[in-house]
Amino acid sequence: MRVIESFDDDVRVIENVWIPMSDGVRLAARVWLPVGSADHPVPAVLEYMPYRKRDFTRLRDEPLHHYFAGHGYAAIRLDVRGTGDSEGILRDEYLAQEQDDAEEAIAWIAEQSWCNGRVGMIGLSWAGFNALQVAARQPPALKAIITMCSTDDRYADDAHYKGGCLLNENLTWGAAFFSLNACPPDPEIAGEPWREQWLERLAHNRLFPALWMRHPHRDDYWKQGSVCEDYSAIQCAVYAVGGWADGYVNAIPRLMAGLQAPRKALIGPWPHAFPHAAEPGPRIGFFQEAVRWWDYWLKEEENGIMDEPLIRAWMEDWIAPAPRHDERPGRWVAETEWPSPRITPRTWHLNVLSLGDHPDPEDRMRLRSPQTTGLRAGDFYGFGAEGDAPMDQRTDDGKSLVFDSDPLSEPVEMLGTPVVTLELACDTPLAHVIVRLNDVAPDGASGRVSYGVLNLAHRDSHERPAPLVPGQRYRITVRLNDMAYRFAPGHTIRLAISSAYWPIIWPAPERSEITLITGASTLALPLRPPRPEDDQLPAFGPPERCPIPTHTILETAEPERSIAVDLTNDETTYTAFGDAGDVGGAALARIEDIDLTLGSTMRRVFRIQEQDPLSAEAVIEQETRFQRGDWAVRIDARIRLTADAEHFFIQAILDAYENGARVASREWNEAIPRLLL
C-alpha cells in the first residue's frame, strides 16, 4: 500500500476540540486542518461514532482524516455523547438525541472560521448508520455523505434480527457495546472530573442485548433511525459502499431503488471493512474515490464521478472455501439503473432432490435438521479474520434438504436478490427455515453464495407475526442476501434448506418437522446478461493512505476458532477468541504519541446439543484495559444467554477496576418472554 507522507498544504492536528450542545453537554472532537484554511476556509468532512477517537480507533482515524485534510478538507472525528471523551450518558444506539447532537455539531462546524459552510459525513458501520439518519434530518450545511456497511432498516438488516429470527450477533455486538459503554474518558482530556464521569457511565450502563430482545417485532423502536420509512427525507447526495461478505449489503440496492437524491453505489467482495485494506480483496484506492466524491459535491469540481454508472459491483467467481482469502476472483461490472431492466428472474423448480426447468408432480419431503446445522457458516459479518468466512458447506448440506441442478453447460451470471418460494407445512406453531444458495464444484466442494432465514411466524409481517397452524399448508417467500456471482460451466447450482442455523441464529423453542412440497416450490435467480461496457470501466487507483501512528504490540491475541464435540452428551461447543479493539490485532499495545497502553479481547462460546434446541447457551467474555503511568483501568464483562420454551434468560456481570482495586460491580439477571421467537 502506498503511504502518503506529505501534501502541498501542511496539516495541523488539534487533539481535542469541545463542541458545545444546547443542553450544556460538550462533545469531544479530534480535528485535522489544512494549514491554509486559516486564511482560506475549506469544506469539512465529519465522522461521528462512539468508538473512541482518542485511542481505540486512533490507528484507523489518522490515515483517513489526515488524508482528507491533505486534500483540502477540514476533517473532524467526533465521539458520540457519553463515549470516548464526550460528556453525557449514552443510553442506546441511534437515539433521536444522537441525531439532535449531530445537527448541532454540523451547524457548529459550518460556522467555524476554517470552514466554508459546506459539510459532508462519512462512516463505516455505526458512523454509516448515523450519516443516513442525519441526512434524513436535512441539516442545511450537509451536502453529501458516504455511508459504508450500514443499513436503511434497523430491524430487517442490522445485528439484532434477520428474517424475524434472533441473531446471536445481538449478544456478541451487545456485549461489545456493553463493555464500550463502561470505558472512561481519558484523564488527559477530561481532566479531574474523569473519574466522576466514569462512575456515572458505569452506574447508567444498560444490558443492551436484553433491551433489544424486548423488541422482537418491527415496532416503533426499530423504525426510529430506519430511513426506509421515508427515503424522500434524504435530499443530499449519497454514496453507499459495502461488500458481499458484510452483513449489511442488502441495504445498498434498496437505497439505490428508493432514494430520489443523487446517489451512487459501490459493492466489492469485502467484509465489514474499508475497501483500501479489506480482505478478501481486491483492495482499491478508496481514499482517492472518497476525495473525488467530496471534490464534486463539496468543492463543485466537475470530475465526471456522477457520469459513471449508478451501481458498480464485484462479480464474484468460484474460489475453493478456505479459512481466509487474500483475493476474491472476479471482475467489476456496472448497471446504470436500479432496479435494472436488463436483469430478469430465471426460475428453477424444486423437484425431488433436483432443480429443474419444469415442475414434476407434487411430492413431499420431510425436514428436521440437527441443531448443529450451520457450524460452517462463519460469522454474521466478517472482518477478514481467519475463519470468519463460510467454509465448505458439505457438512451443513448433509444436514439439509438439497436440490441440485444438472452441471451447467454454460456460465450463469447473477446480480440481485435470489428469491425462494416454498410450499410447506409444519407440525409446530413456531419454526425456522434457512435457505442457502451454494456453488458445487466438480470435485464436490460446496461454497456458499448467499443465504436467507425466516421465522415462519413472520411469513406475512415482521410487525404482526402469527403462529403457524400445525399441519396447514402455506406458501412462503424467503429473500436471500443480494449478491453478484458467476456460476462456471461444469459447476452445479445447489439450494440447501434447513430448519436450524447455529450459531448464526438462536433456535426455535422445539424441534419441528417441516414437510416441503416439491414440484410446487421454486427458486428465482436474477440473471444478468453480459454488458460489453463493463470492459471499459475506469480502473480504481491503488490503495493509499497516510502513515499509521507509531505503536508497539506488547501482547498478541492469537486468534482461536474451534469446534469440539462431547460424545458423552452429544454437545457441540463453538469457540472464538481474538482482539476486540482496533490496535493491529493486539491484546495489548502502546500508542506512543499519547503515552497510552490499551487493549481488549473477546471470547465467544456457543454450546448446543444435537437434538435439543433448549440446550442452547451463548457466553461472551470481554476484557478491556487502559494504562498510562500510575493510572490503570480494567473492565471485565461477561454475558450469558439461555432459554426455555417460554423465556430467554440473560445474566451479566460487569466489574470495573482502578489501579487493581474494584470500584464498581454490577449484576443483571433478566427473564424475557419469547414472543414468537
Automatic annotation (TrEMBL):
The keyword Hydrolase applies. It comes from the Bacteria. Residues 291-546 form the Xaa-Pro dipeptidyl-peptidase C-terminal domain. Pfam families: Peptidase_S15, PepX_C. One of its GO terms (molecular function) is dipeptidyl-peptidase activity. Keywords: Hydrolase. InterPro entries: AB_hydrolase_fold, CocE/Ser_esterase, Galactose-bd-like_sf, Xaa-Pro-like_dom, Xaa-Pro_dipept_C, Xaa-Pro_dipeptidyl-ppase/CocE. SMART domains: PepX_C. This is Peptidase S15. It comes from Alkalilimnicola ehrlichii (strain ATCC BAA-1101 / DSM 17681 / MLHE-1). The lineage of its organism: Bacteria, Pseudomonadati, Pseudomonadota, Gammaproteobacteria, Chromatiales.
